[in-house]
Amino acid sequence: MTYRCAVIGNPIVHSQSPQIHAAFAAKQGIDLQYDKILATEENFTAVVQDFFAQGGHGLNITLPFKEKAYALAQQHSPYARTAGAVNTLWMENGELCGDNTDGRGLVRALSQQHGIDLSGKRLLLLGAGGAARGVILPLLEAQVSQIDILNRSPDKARALADLYAERVAAVEHPAQGYDLIINATSAGLGDSAFTLSPTTLHEQTLCYDMMYGKQTPFMQWAAAQGCTQIADGYSMLENQAWLAFHIWFGTIIKKDNI
């Protein structure tokens, strides 16, 4: 049996999801057709409905449609509800279900591929948009001791921090010596210089950019400060993809690894 899955976005040509899922499927012996679908704001809902009406098995959702996917889904995981966004869709019992695997993918990447024990770690999160919102709950579940949110709009950072009872705070002046700094802003899409006080770092700080595929201004800044642990978001991409793949094919997967 051939299963049909796809990723929907705009733009979509750059997506690495087909290669990643093809590798998962080959390792598991699953016959998978995985496509890229270019959609627009106007036809996104119709494209999703048509995909599943024609027997599609699962969809990944990327920018800029994650919020639209959340609104379209009839059932949501706790992670999707917390993020207000969906990156994985599937049909179950006649209903369109949505999950957000981004945050758990990040935690899985940090712990399994970068060797970071997140328990007790102090973390600076740059940004207060959808990407940041989607990772906070899984980071808290991983028992980080503190998440400080720094954003160009302090009000937006405070609004995000206020969603959590403890261990999350908005800051305008970051503390010193974070164990982990995560860039969840779209700054990596441009070439503007990135600035942050070097006192936010210590000798073992990991600087992680959720963007992938290029040396971002944030990563360049970290390197200029002498930071020796710098990573882009490809490991997060792989891990969130594996979690989506597990949702679609969990009953027939032979090994729970990437």
TrEMBL record:
Residues 7-89 form the Shikimate dehydrogenase substrate binding N-terminal domain. Its EC number is 1.1.1.25. SUPFAM superfamilies: Aminoacid dehydrogenase-like, N-terminal domain, NAD(P)-binding Rossmann-fold domains. It comes from the Bacteria. Belongs to the shikimate dehydrogenase family. Involved in the biosynthesis of the chorismate, which leads to the biosynthesis of aromatic amino acids. Catalyzes the reversible NADPH linked reduction of 3-dehydroshikimate (DHSA) to yield shikimate (SA). This is Shikimate dehydrogenase (NADP(+)). The gene is aroE.
